[in-house]
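hey
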């Protein structure tokens, strides 16, 4: 189990090392998706909680930190 997890982390870090802007772009995409949901469906649960906004900001910050570390 531990060896498979280590191999997975090695593959993910190798993949993200060559694509440093992927996670921040996905985060920006989630923020834009949240804006569209807020405009198109204003009275839904997703609109009220702003789930994609929070996930997008967290993903973008983690992406910047990983890009800086890798």
């Amino acid at each position: 189990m531990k060896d498979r997890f280590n191999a997975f982390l090695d593959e993910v870090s190798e993949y993200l090392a060559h694509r440093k802007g992927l996670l921040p772009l996905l985060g920006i995409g989630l923020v834009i998706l949240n804006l569209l949901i807020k405009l198109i469906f204003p009275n839904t649960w997703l609109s009220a909680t702003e789930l994609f906004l929070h996930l997008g900001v967290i993903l973008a910050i983690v992406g910047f930190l990983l890009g800086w570390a890798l």
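Residues 11 and 18 are 11 Å apart (CA to CA). The chain has one domain: 2-69.
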